[in-house]
Backbone:
């Protein structure tokens, strides 16, 4: 390997350190010589994410706008122009790339990129392997999301068992870090993240025994979180324990808070009990109060529309859905809401093809890249 | 639901959708915590890096634009990854329907023609093999008119009490634009299946095994055994563990949920004769024990209920004659005769017998693995009240391995009653 550090072509403000001339020959992602400037020595160009990684502000911005195509173009450009100099940048970009591919449902490509990774716990991905770049830093360079994605992809490809195994292994990994580290707040957050994800997958498969065990464990960590306790209520409703759910919702109500978010949570819980008891008029009233407090409460909007339909008022149900899409498209543009609206169209119109096509065309103009328009069943 | 096509150009058409309870949307989303993506997982180990990252993130948060789909990418609340927001979904398909459930349907009659129709009488009925049930009939007050592009909607409900083929018959009688009186029938077929089977076993205990034949998991809301007058029933179940103190009462004791597609759950009852029934006759005929009332719930508390038929008990009589094997040799060899000691006891208060002991010949005429060697019938004398008789039987085994001494009977030649050898005895047959 060439021992002389090359000039970094794309960062003219760097002054390559001439004293430190050893080039790290381990390069897990691309085979080009490393820049040797310590990462921390980069002068702060702006008080922004770009300080951490090249153009990170832009990546973050694009992701929150749902512009995954643009993210992929940006990543491909940065590769061809060799814009990335540090291992942590390449890992961050790789993670954004894989996430974007999954969002766009290009799962084989996502899987392919994942397979190009070395063992995530290996030397390649640790700060101390590159002391000239990260002089005082120890630990793993791997973004935690990348580990999670590694477990998610098999599930999306249809190998649920492999995915679940990986998620449980990830949970063990997180729990080990909690035991070992002093500052482990972030890892506790990650533990809740992985447990929640597992809970969702088990619920989706109606595996209520395991799901209840996970809920119990989550509640042990956060017994007074009204959103979490409400979710226990939803699980109980899912398998039909109406009295259990009512008791759970009463507990949530007692957690007393005056914020609109909390009031809406309690209101939506009350409405669900009305739905179960087939009192759709009262349910609609609860949801209307929620919408008045927060017009972005899309769960209330969607559920109100369904209650109108169950009260024989299909026309108003459709109006509520359409008005939400017009008023607050960034929250209303949700595959489930749109799916419900299309079911309503199919019931209301003998020739529903036209009205669904109009909806589909509008979605194509407004929706983010990852919106799955198969929900319109056009 | 499938519908048969109607003949002729009709101005009206029925659209139908089954309205079982909506369900929760559950789908773990692809949403992340920025701390997990924007830097390495151990980047925030030192406090200055952690605060650096936090600062940068809050500066981006400040820029909140209307065109943001941030909620599709970033998590808000730690439980967002569950993907259970409480959003409800309409039923995506007709689904399966079972005896004991309530069939509910949205019915919409649309005028898709270019002109108004008048004087519309709408009827909805359920037709089964046995009967025709009227759910809706507007003939007393017909709908005056339905404009072009207009609709008339209604919701019908019916408690399903029969198995097999059902047809929802929707019909409209109306005057079209030319004043012609037209009749539009539409048919929507569905099949009602049996949700549960209840198998019982009893001695003085009643064990019921409930098996779930549906496609959903069933939450058993109530399973009640209603005993017949002469019995009192006591439900037996394990002691529940007391709930842990910090979650006192929050998580209920494990609910009884029977898994879909063949899951089972057993219920055990102890049956005690009611105190007002005097004594216990020795030789009763079969007795009625009682019946089960079962209520289950599925998604969002959707209820179903069934009652079983009367459950019958086996005859309660004590046996008059007891015949059993007392002893067999320790080593029994294939095709070599051996002697088994048996005992015949008279459990009544009168003389019985004489008896003829032999091997039953069953329909298959197959060779029994253990047969009587030599004379096929052994005569035993009469037995006094509560008396017993020990005797030997010469047997021979024709098959290797674990075999049963079974099928041996004692015939009371006077009363012409047959008693079986109980219990069957297992022996091990070795080779020569």
Residues:
């Amino acid at each position: 390997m060439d021992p002389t550090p090359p000039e970094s072509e794309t960062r003219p403000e760097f002054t390559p350190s001439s004293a430190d001339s050893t080039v790290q020959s381990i390069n897990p992602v691309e085979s080009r010589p490393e820049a040797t400037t310590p990462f921390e020595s980069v002068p702060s160009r702006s008080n922004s994410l770009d300080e951490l990684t090249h153009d990170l502000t832009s990546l973050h911005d694009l992701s929150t706008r749902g512009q995954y195509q643009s993210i992929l173009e940006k990543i491909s450009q940065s590769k061809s122009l060799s814009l990335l100099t540090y291992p942590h940048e390449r890992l961050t970009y790789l993670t954004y790339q894989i996430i974007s591919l999954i969002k766009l449902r290009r799962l084989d490509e996502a899987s392919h990129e994942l397979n190009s990774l070395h063992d995530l716990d290996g030397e390649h991905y640790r700060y101390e392997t590159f002391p000239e770049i990260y002089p005082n830093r120890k630990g793993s360079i791997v973004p935690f999301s990348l580990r999670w994605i590694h477990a998610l992809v098999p599930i999306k490809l249809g190998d649920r068992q492999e995915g679940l195994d990986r998620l449980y292994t990830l949970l063990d990994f997180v729990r080990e870090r909690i035991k070992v580290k002093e500052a482990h707040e972030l890892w506790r957050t990650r533990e809740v993240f992985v447990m929640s994800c597992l809970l969702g997958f088990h619920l989706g498969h109606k595996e209520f025994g395991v799901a209840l065990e996970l809920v119990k464990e989550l509640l042990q960590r956060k017994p007074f979180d009204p959103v979490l306790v409400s979710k226990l209520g939803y699980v109980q409703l899912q398998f039909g324990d109406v009295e259990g759910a009512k008791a759970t919702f009463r507990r949530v109500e007692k957690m007393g808070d005056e914020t609109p978010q909390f009031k809406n949570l309690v209101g939506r819980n009350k409405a669900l009990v009305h739905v179960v008891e087939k009192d759709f008029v009262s349910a609609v009233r609860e949801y209307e109060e929620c919408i008045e407090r927060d017009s972005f409460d899309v769960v209330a909007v969607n559920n109100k529309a369904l209650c109108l339909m169950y009260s024989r008022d299909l026309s108003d149900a459709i109006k509520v859905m359409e008005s939400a899409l017009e008023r607050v498209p960034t929250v209303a543009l949700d595959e489930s809401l749109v799916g419900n609206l299309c079911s309503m169209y199919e019931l209301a119109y003998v020739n529903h093809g036209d009205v669904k096509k109009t909806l589909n065309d509008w979605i194509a103009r407004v929706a983010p890249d990852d919106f799955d328009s198969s929900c319109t069943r056009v | 639901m499938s519908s048969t096509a109607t003949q002729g150009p009709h101005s009206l058409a029925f659209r139908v959708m089954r309205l079982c309870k909506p369900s929760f949307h559950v789908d773990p989303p692809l949403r992340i915590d920025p701390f997990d993506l924007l830097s390495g997982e151990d980047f925030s180990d030192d406090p200055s890096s952690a605060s650096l990252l936090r600062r940068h993130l809050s500066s981006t948060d400040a820029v909140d634009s209307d065109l943001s789909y941030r909620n599709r990418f970033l998590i808000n609340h730690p439980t967002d990854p569950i993907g259970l927001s409480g959003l409800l979904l309409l039923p995506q398909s007709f689904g399966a329907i079972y005896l004991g459930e309530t069939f509910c349907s949205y019915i919409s009659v649309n005028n898709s023609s270019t002109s108004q129709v008048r004087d519309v009488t709408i009827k909805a009925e359920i037709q089964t093999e046995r009967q025709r049930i009227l759910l809706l009939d507007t003939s007393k007050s017909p709908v005056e008119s339905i404009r072009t592009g207009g609709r008339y909607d209604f919701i019908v409900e019916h408690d399903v009490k029969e198995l097999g083929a059902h047809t929802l018959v929707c019909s409209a009688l109306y005057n079209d634009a030319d004043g012609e009186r037209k009749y539009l029938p539409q048919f929507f077929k569905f099949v009602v299946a049996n949700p549960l089977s209840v198998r019982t076993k009893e001695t003085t205990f009643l064990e019921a095994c409930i098996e779930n034949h549906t496609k959903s998991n069933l939450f058993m809301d109530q399973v009640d055994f209603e005993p017949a007058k002469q019995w009192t029933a006591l439900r037996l179940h394990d002691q529940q563990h007391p709930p842990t103190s910090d979650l006192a009462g929050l998580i209920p004791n494990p609910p009884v949920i029977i898994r879909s597609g063949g899951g089972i759950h057993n219920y055990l009852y102890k049956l005690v004769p009611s105190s007002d029934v005097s004594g216990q006759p020795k030789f009763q005929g079969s007795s009625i024990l009682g019946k089960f009332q079962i209520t289950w719930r599925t998604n969002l508390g959707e209820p179903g209920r069934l009652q079983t038929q009367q459950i019958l008990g086996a005859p309660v009589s004590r046996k008059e004659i007891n015949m059993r094997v007392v002893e067999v040799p320790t080593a029994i060899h294939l095709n070599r005769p051996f002697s088994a000691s048996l005992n015949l006891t008279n459990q009544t208060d009168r003389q019985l017998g004489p008896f003829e002991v032999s091997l039953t010949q069953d329909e298959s005429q197959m060779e029994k693995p253990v047969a009587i060697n030599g004379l096929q019938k052994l005569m035993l004398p009469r037995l006094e009240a509560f008396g017993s008789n020990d005797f030997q039987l010469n047997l021979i085994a024709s098959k290797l391995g674990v075999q049963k001494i079974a099928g041996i009977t004692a015939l009371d030649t006077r009363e012409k009653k047959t008693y079986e050898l109980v219990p069957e005895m297992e022996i091990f047959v070795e080779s020569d």
